[in-house]
Amino acid sequence: MEIKGFTINFLGDSITEGAGVADIESCRYDNRIKKACALAAVNNYGIGGTRIAHQIHASAKPRHDLCFCGRAYNLDKNADMVIVYGGVNDYIHGDAPFGVIGDTTPATFCGGVYFLMNYLLERFAGKPIVFMTPARCNYGNVNDLAPSPREGKNTDAKPLLAYVEVIEETAKNFNIPVLNLYRDLGIDPHDPVQYEKYTADGLHFNDDGHAILAQKLMDFIAAL
Description:
The protein has helices spanning 14-17, 24-27, 29-37, 68-71, 88-92, 109-123, 160-174, 181-184, 192-198, 207-222; strands at residues 7-12, 41-46, 81-85, 129-132, 138-139, 142-143, 178-179.
């Protein structure tokens, strides 16, 4: 797919907002893509701490409760493309139930993914939509191979890969392309060398990590 001249909406969390990036204008992944692909504009809708699903109990930081499903209504409807990158905060500290495939409301993670994809397809009919899954993380006491130990997590919380698989499976039903960063990004923060080279803290990418993320996304879009 050729995206030269496009205006793209990037809906995401702290990674999309630029946490961990020293030079946001030059190095954050959306701005790298803007320059490399000669985009007309990038609309960055990244808000740190936000989740796809609704939160049951109010967070200590109200900003974290501005879920993707609610913010989707605020996206520039004239944009040529929408890219969504989220789910890791649902895994780390979201208190919504995981749910099951077939849920359709943001009351559960599964339902939130369904609701968001369904809404975007209707609002941006005929325009390309791409989802990216969470990448691997090794963040404080949170290891993506196990359910998050954070206080307030629902009893049906799962390892990060389960959240990744919901995004992929739901997207198949909607025929939405998904870039699986958990599998394909090539950055493993469990490796001490890669942790130091590409991440700020095992979750957020530094400038070098964003360079890899941007290239992976550009290659993925070019192949669509």
